[in-house]
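Subject: sequence -> structure tokens, single chain

Hey, anyone have a minute? Need the predicted structure for the following. Not urgent.
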Amino acid sequence: MKHIALGLVCSLFIGFSGAEAQTKNNSIPDPATYVPTVKPVRISPEEAPIIDGVLDDPVWEKAAVIDEFYKVAPTLGHPSEKTRVYFAYDAEALYVAFEAFDSEPEKIINRIMTRDGEVWRDDMIRFYIDPFNTGLGGFGFDINALGARLDRIIQKGRTPIDEWDTIWDTEGRVTDEGWVVEMVIPFRSISFDPENSDGWGLLITRELAHKSEEIRWSSIDPGVAKFDFRQPGRLVGVQDIEQGLGLDVELLGTVIASRDWTNPRDDDVSIEPSANIYYKITQSLTGLLTLNSDFSDTPLDTRQINTGRFSLFQPETRDFFLQDAAVFEFAGDIFTGSPNGQPFFSRRIGIVNGEQVDLKAGLKLSGEIKGVELGVLSARMGETDNLESQTLSVGRASLDVLDNSRLGFIATNGDPTGNTNNSLYGSDFIYRNNSFMGGGLLQATAFYMKSLSSVADDESFGIKVDYPNDKWTWSVSATEIGEQFRPALGFVNRPGIRDYGASWHRRFRTRDGWYQYWQFGTSHDYITNFDGEMQTRKNSLNFDVELRATDRIGFRLYEGEEVVNAPFLLPTGIVVPSGRYNANGAFASLRSSFSRPYGTDSDIRFEEYFGGERLRTKLNGSLRPSRYWNLNVTWERDQISVPAGDVTVQIYALENVVNMSSDVSIETQAQYDNISESFSLFSRMRWEVRPETEVFLSLGHGAIIRYDDFPRDFRSLQTQLVLRVGNRFQF
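Reply:
Had a minute. Here:
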């Protein structure tokens, strides 16, 4: 049987390799060296097009045009449909129009209408620019066939930040030949270096969702992620443009009506003015002053229940901190898999021990000056019954060195709790070789940090070498985090360790068949204390397959061991004693294609867990029957049985979006878990009257629901109604 199984595996290997070899096409440019360029046509302000989704403006007849696109998924080749893009600019804005031809226009998917919605689920265009040519990130503009738009910050090795917003406009429509979109990006809305003779990095990607096909203008290596600026095209020749005074003033007025339902009941109504003032100190360096910052539109955090030994990481969702967040990123993607050891974690500002603290004033500088990318943030926090006012600051600088490499520095100062005098300084170096071993990318990252505190000083350092390419991917890393390494503005949940990691996978693509690719590989993590004694060991065998329709299935088999040096508590107070425990298990996941009106992103895990067993199930279902309604429901069940007892964690979450139009939407979130027994409801209406004017109305409600007695026992805690009107003035 073993010989038969081995023969089958070898046959599959040869068959898949042969299918991959068939994808080679001599008429396709070399992905490793292909760098297309476009030079927009200069027009007068009177020639500026009307953004209405109709290409009847004379300007498009004289605009620069590109139409040389290549398919990168499911395989590299020529696209099944033609795409044409027009470029023009005047002193104030860049104008772009897209003609996305489609032989089956009746099949075009356009179910997303919400501003900042999940337009990547539809037939859509990605227009990403890197104005500073960092090769690490930039600004992203996504548009679907309806003209629904999403703006985002793109950052190397990280999930795009969709909470970022700027002023721009689009309009789109479906035609008998496909679909058309017009777009305008005011130069006042982005930061850039006007002296950059190399132009801007530019990525243009078209997603044919109904054909599961991805088409690109540049970065045509299938192994390069669609958010990666390592091989961008060039947008050149944009010069003599105006950004006015470089002053934007955003004024907001917020009326808050709240009710505290606890005895004695307390009602309150308040008016809270706030302002954000943006000033371009130079055309490539922007200052932002925020006064009495308003975070009323921040969505609910994803509900998490801690069933382990170490504190959980909760990503940032507040607009002020997400603006230009990529500038403050440190050490590339070293902290992508595990956030332990990050020097700066913006949620430390304004949230202390789970308590909200007002941000009275904040100052931020971000951009580039004389070839140095700069980010500075200083925030003055308000007082509470338990905290005195604190000033918290972080500074980050990085510059290009050698060829495609980057040297950076970071410093922080302040302790949100006020308990210590705390600061940190550090440096990172990212080396990139885009033609390693015949064209693959090799990246090496090294960093060093030291935290200084009135309690103790300590350091952290590490290195990671990556070969992140399509056919072969591998990485090795080593990190040390000192026992007393405690940056008060960072995130450390496991100090006093040495962490060694390695992983690899081999991917096989096919031109035809029921799948796009399959891959297998292994990953390894080994953590010790400073005496070299093992604390955590985990080795996994990984298998993934992406089907022709972009459904993705994954399997993991892993073995490992955990050493618990001090007892800790599971939810409900169950004690896990010190000891050495096996951590073997299996994991399976299913993510369905985004192109369907229904789908799932679910997984299941079964493993040995601290002397017992654990079965964790996440079931997710989404429904998008039309552009006017989207629904997403998630249920998580974590069933743990250890020698000291049993505990079952259940989390319920619902997200519902109703679109009145592309400018008016109502989003509702509801969450509940059986451990805290807390229920949260947050519903918000957003009306974008015009790109610079917005009306926001929200209703939030918190309650305690006894899990065993629902719905009989429902105790309201607090209700809050918020009306906010804001307008951004550009000078």
